Amino acid sequence: MHDSQPPRNTAGSGAAQASHPVAAQRGAADRSTEAPTPQEGGGVIGRLTSTVERLRGELTRAQAQADGRALVELAKGILVERLDVSPAEAGRQLDTLAGQSKLSVLELAADLVNQASHDRISDLAREFVASAGEASMGVRLRSAEAGALGASDVQAVARSVLEHALRPLGARAVAIWAANSDQSLTLAGSAGFAEEEAMRWRHVPPGVPVPARRALIDRAPTVYESLAAGGLPSIGQREFGGGRLAVPAGTGGRITGVLEVCWPGDLPRQSQSLQRQFEALAELCATALESRPAVANDEGGIDPQTADLLELVHGLQDPCLVLQPDLDAADRAADYLVKYINPSFEDFAGRPRSAILGARLLEAYPLAAEAGGLFEKVEHVLATGESFRSPGMQLSALVDGVPLTTRASVSISRHGTRVVVIWRTEDGTARVASLLQHAQRLGRIGGFEENLHTGEIAWNDTLFDLHGLPPHAKPIPIEHLAAHVHPDDEHTIDRFLRTLLHHQRPASTAFRLQRADGIARHIRVVAEPVLDADARITAVRGAYQDVSAQHWTEVALAATRDQLAHTEQQAAERNRLALQLQHAIMPPSRGPLDLHDLRVGVRYRPAEKDHLVGGDWYDALALPTGQVLLCVGDVAGHGIEAATGMVALRNALRGLAATGAGPGQLLGWLNTVTHHLTDNVTATTICALYDPRTRALRWARAGHLPPILLRDGQATELPTVAGILLGAIDQCDYDEGEVQLKAGDTLMMYTDGLIERRDRSLEESLDDLLSTAGAADGHAELERRLDHLLRYSSSDTDDDTCLIGITVR
After folding, report:
1. Which of 383, 448, 535, 727 sits most deeply, having the most CB atoms within 10 A of its CB?
2. Which PANTHER family does its entry note (predicted)?
3. Taking the CA of residue 697 as centre, how many other CA atoms within 13 Å lie in the half-sphere pointing to its CB?
4. Overall number of domains in the chain
């Protein structure tokens, strides 16, 4: 009796089985009735062995057929989306196209998925077809991917990779190793090995020289022409002593395991395209390792995706940071976000905890980028999983341009997708750095401290004199500072207060102080929040400095430079004209309007940088039809082009609204105007018509964020209606939505400058906006509610912001 091998499942046979399931089932039934061979018929044991081998082969073929069907279903889904047909019609179209192109259904499905995905596998398929004419290579890789995505565990992924992609290359076995933080290896999945062999190699302790460990150390594929000649132990070394290949498997710059491929004889001829194919298969294995259920291993490993890691870090007595990789376009860690710091954390440079939490590692500690520094160690730990420990590592930070250095005992380890850094500095380092910070603050002129809970304010004598107030006068709260500055600097103070009070970060700015005695002074204010143990702001401390003399010196120097910089003067004039044009249509501040039973309030916040004159616009107008037109929009871009485009669209919509058409029709006409009568202008907008008789609001949108309805203390977003942005195509239909308003309702329409953030998604920003809007005082006047929403919005970009509030009386 001899061991029979499972039938080899090629791409061509898989395609035939996928396209003719009835024939495949008939073939399986025919094979199930075949008589045993003479070798298998010698007794009960022989017959049982033959049955087991036959069932094993049928199981392998069934798995291959399932992977092929998954790939065909992916292709059907692409046809459903592209042709807008039903799944059944997509299946018929796939069969028809396969017949016309003289390809199997599976081969055509692989081609469709390759064209739609544009990923590494599709690139490899094109290379192989161009260089070797091997059209089935894309089918094999796509089938392997389909099997991996549908697999329930890493073991199934190993079988799919071996059967679809590696057996055609002569490989007979594959092992997928998971790399542990203690430098040990765990066999997460395998195929082609005997069960006893896989159990024997279930765990490889640290220090054992196997091919997989060499690939981890080198962080590169490791090739052995003959495993026996290499003298290294590994799984299946007796049965597969031929060529051996170990490829690191990882994503996002983080190696989580190794793909090891075994040949009974010589390796296939190596080429760059073949190497890339192995790397693509290793990525599939890394995805499987990432998504496998997290179970504590023999060494007591912890699931890195749960709160257990943070709970562990929370109880440490030494300062600890939890870092998350910040990936670039190439899926490599360009920096690391400080996602969590434990209660024992104390910055060795004396800065508050709020200055470190949420920052990037190189922003908080730029000197960590030095060769052999902290950043390099963190990068190595993330990539290899190998922990790092040093009893005396140098740590450096820049504070106000002054480098501060200390030596500390440092420990770095990887936990899932995050890296934990623990350090213990020498006694007194943080205290000396804190004294340095206090000394720098004491050198300022006019110090103050304000308790936000009790309202108690402490000023020194110099600060009263700076404000032109007698020593017995009542100090000015920092929230009322905007009432004592030049009108042009009110937005500067608003941004300063948002950073300080809402974002709870240190802030500084310069402004013109309008004193009660009529004297104007140029002032610079620097302040920082004081946080309690629960990270809530309790007080504000800081200093004011009179920089008037410095300001006038800078003005004189600027005047001299302006005479020599004609080009800059032209650019400034262009921006000034654009800003004047923008403000002529939309003043930055505007009193409330009463339109029938509506009270309309508007807030416009220009961009933080003067040269970013944008195209945000709004309008509120009573129409001859008795309805009220309400709209807000945002023209793409900045500068004079955006400002002139904004004026054109705003005036065009006003004229079109007089026709009495609905909001959907108005946007359709406005899209035609934008596409044909403007110069490459695109814009988003919301157009609404309110009927005072029925209190019904009809609205449509062109790629804009939906309005927010405040009713009974709850803030909700109106259901989204379909509508593409203006100017993208020449003809477009816009759906309409309708909401029945009632007395006391408030509707908020805004541009994306109110919520855009660089560090979070749009959905998270929208949730923050709804929370902020719902937290406002429901009985407050409309003007105060608009000011509250503008001040405490979560945006951090330099874009313009338009906010319009409509209250039904």
Report:
1. 727
2. STAGE II SPORULATION PROTEIN E (PTHR43156:SF2), STAGE II SPORULATION PROTEIN E-RELATED (PTHR43156)
3. 25
4. 5
